[in-house]
């Protein structure tokens, strides 16, 4: 199974840090955030990786190259000057991802979730990883019911971790240009074609300088390493 890392965003909430670097290249725990994903991909045996690029994408391409330094084969989906959001970015990369299911992870999260452990159940279009709601997102995103199906509505909502497995058919008939992945996921949920997993391990949305600094401190603590 191939892995796509979403790395095209501007990181507007971290402007003083991302004026010179794209957010996935910000250092945390002694190396760029993106490198954590690449190392975990290699450890999981996901040898083929696609990275989408937009804002300062040349910095990512220069640092990662063809991926051989990580034991990977890395290819790039270049979106030009303006990122295509989550849905549009994945849709643009479909020719590189192939005809089968593929895993996608947001480039601005850090997690110990074991990439490559899940598979897309037959007949499903998506399988989402959900986590307990962090303090900055208490309302959550989706419900995971007792049968392992993900619903757009319902109580006890969890937060989408920015990790999922998708079938290319999810993007059939998708609009061209920029659009959010959720616009495709919600109809698929209503049709009963989205399953999910609840991850109870470590997960951080590195969306602000404060959360980045806190993660950096935690990863540098020998008790966490």
Automatic annotation (TrEMBL):
NCBIfam families tied to this protein: NAMPUrTaseMurU
One matching Pfam family: NTP_transferase
UniProt KW keywords: Nucleotidyltransferase, Transferase
Protein name: Nucleotidyltransferase family protein
Keyword S-adenosyl-L-methionine (UniProt): no
Domain Nucleotidyl transferase, chain residue ranges per copy: 4-115
GO molecular function: nucleotidyltransferase activity
InterPro entries: GlmU-like, MurU, NTP_transferase_dom, Nucleotide-diphossugar_trans
């Amino acid at each position: 199974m191939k892995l796509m890392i979403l790395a095209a965003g501007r990181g507007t909430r971290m402007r003083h840090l991302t004026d010179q670097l794209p957010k996935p290249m910000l250092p945390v725990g002694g190396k760029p955030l993106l490198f954590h994903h690449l190392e975990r991909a290699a450890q999981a045996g996901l040898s083929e990786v696609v990275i989408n690029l937009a804002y300062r994408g040349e910095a990512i391409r220069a640092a990662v190259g063809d991926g051989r330094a990580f034991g990977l084969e890395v290819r790039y989906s270049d979106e030009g000057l303006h990122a295509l959001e989550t849905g549009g970015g994945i849709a643009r990369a479909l020719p590189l991802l192939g005809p089968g299911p593929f895993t996608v992870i947001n480039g601005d999260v850090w997690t110990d979730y074991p990439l490559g452990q899940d598979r897309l159940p037959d007949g499903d279009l998506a399988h989402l990883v959900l986590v307990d709601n962090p303090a900055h997102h208490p309302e959550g995103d989706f419900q995971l019911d007792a049968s392992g199906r993900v619903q757009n509505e319902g109580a006890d909502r969890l937060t989408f971790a920015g990790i999922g497995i998708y079938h290319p058919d999810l993007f059939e008939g998708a609009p061209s240009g920029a659009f959010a992945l959720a616009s495709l996921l919600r109809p698929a949920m209503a049709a009963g074609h989205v399953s999910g997993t609840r991850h109870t391990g470590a997960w951080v949305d590195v969306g602000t300088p404060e959360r980045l600094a806190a993660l950096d401190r935690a990863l540098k603590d020998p008790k966490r390493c």
